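Re: that chain you flagged

S.,

Sorry for the slow reply, it's been a week of failed gels. I finally had a moment to sit down with the sequence you sent. For the record, here it is as I used it:
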Amino acid sequence: MSEANAARAESGGAAVAAPPVGDARDTSNYRKHTSGNPLQRRLIDRFHRRIVDRVAALRPESFLDAGCGEGFVAEALLARLPALAVTGFDFNPASVDLARQRAPRATFQVASIFDIPHEANAFDVVGCFEVLEHQDDPAAALRELARVASRAVVLSVPQEPYFSLANAARGKNLDIRPRGSDPDHRQLWRRGAFADFVRADPALDVAWLGGSFPWTICVARKRAS
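Prediction finished late last night. Pasting the structure tokens below so you have them in one place:
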């Protein structure tokens, strides 16, 4: 997920985005995934394994990475599932360029999570990782994710309050309230509250809820129409 795709608000029913980041290597997402901190590296690697495990268990043939950032999740998926047809999009063109370099077997494009340029039920599984917490209207984004999924969506968001507490413990974002929270986060979901949010979408049923510290991971299946 790129900061530009995340830093988005709904205004008058239309999605309004922050200016794209010129160099995707300047995004917090890129810095997080390329950190030399060994603890952060272990947390990210474990998170990727959990995400890939959940996607693999669904046995998809096609997958959409919504808010793909610089392609880190796509790369991890294709390493485990080389036959998977992976498509991704992000609002930030610079992030899309890096994603194409990182995962050349996938297909990437520039697009908005509020107006996904694919037909209904276009993908077996849709993934959206570390994006929804940045949205002022996450329900509108979730409706689009559910629309283009034929079988399931796999989602992740920071698990509060532990995400913020972990930041505060290492002296990060101490001037933000709640202390330690990310200044770009519009939603601060506890795990149960996030499950309730997903269940509120009429197209989805929560099939699995868990996580990888400090993130919540949710698998939701499409309801029969």
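What I noticed first: Residues 3-222 form a domain with the Rossmann fold fold (CATH 3.40.50.150).

Talk soon,
D.
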